[in-house]
Specification:
Number of strands: 11
Shape: elongated
Strand content: over 45%
Oligomer: single chain
Helix content: 25-40%
Largest sheet: 6 strands, antiparallel
């Protein structure tokens, strides 16, 4: 019995050491991935990425060159949108079944989802000069609205007018965010609607999205706009 107890103690100690080694290894790997992500973003990111590698044991995942789940979050990412710089307040992503190759320099996720948050200030900076994007409150149906305001010069009369409209925000083509006014005041006057829409209706295509990841939908709230993204065969590195 004594020998059995000693054997059990040894097994428990060894298991504890394995767990400790496994957790140390995953922490080192998370730090390394965060550093690599920070290096790829360079000056395009103002914050340090937060990376979490889930699943146990981690060491057997590495041996099999496939990670169960990887989550990452980066704040303050600068991207190009329609030729203009736009700050993405926060980008988060969750990738599952991540296959590793090329001496761990390449990582491709079988499936990934994520969100991109843009504040109204960020959206205003991404719009044309003099265009302001803000929260428009609740519609009659209770849906959050986006308001777009701009000063527009009407060619026929040479007069500059201020107009604010409620716009529908949508995504198209997997990478493009589109703003389209639901209704334009004074649209019955010839040329007015076309002139105003040329200013307040706009598309912005966002770069920095990993290959295979596409924008799927958009939701607005009082803090800004949230873009949801999803994809398969998503290239995370390499």
């Amino acid at each position: 019995m004594r020998a059995l107890r000693i054997g059990l103690v040894i097994l428990v100690v060894l298991a504890g050491l394995f767990v400790a080694a496994d957790r140390i290894a995953v922490n080192l790997a998370e730090d390394e991935v965060a550093k690599k992500l920070k290096g790829e973003l360079g000056s395009a990111s103002s914050g340090d990425p937060e990376v979490s590698i889930e699943g146990f044991p981690f060491l057997t995942q590495v041996a099999g060159k496939e990670l169960d789940k990887v989550t990452a979050q980066v704040k303050g990412v600068t991207a190009k949108a329609g030729g203009r710089e736009v700050r993405l307040s926060e980008v988060s992503m969750e990738a599952t079944d991540v296959a590793l190759s090329d001496n761990f320099n390449s990582a491709v996720a079988d499936h990934a989802t994520g969100t991109v948050h843009l504040s109204y200030k960020d959206l205003s900076n991404a719009a044309d000069e003099g265009v302001r994007v803000s929260y428009g409150g609740k519609s009659k149906s209770g849906k959050d609205q986006v308001k777009v305001s701009a000063s527009v010069t009407i060619p026929l009369i040479g007069k500059t007018i201020e107009r604010s409209v409620y716009s529908t925000v949508s995504v198209t083509g997997g990478k493009t965010v589109r703003f389209h006014a639901d209704e334009v005041p004074g649209s019955k006057i010839p040329g007015i609607e076309k002139t105003i829409r040329e200013k307040i209706d706009f598309d912005r295509t966002i770069d920095k999205l990993p290959e295979g990841l596409k924008l799927e939908k958009v939701d607005a709230d009082k803090d800004g706009v949230n873009l949801s993204m999803e994809g398969t065969g998503v290239h995370l590195a390499g």
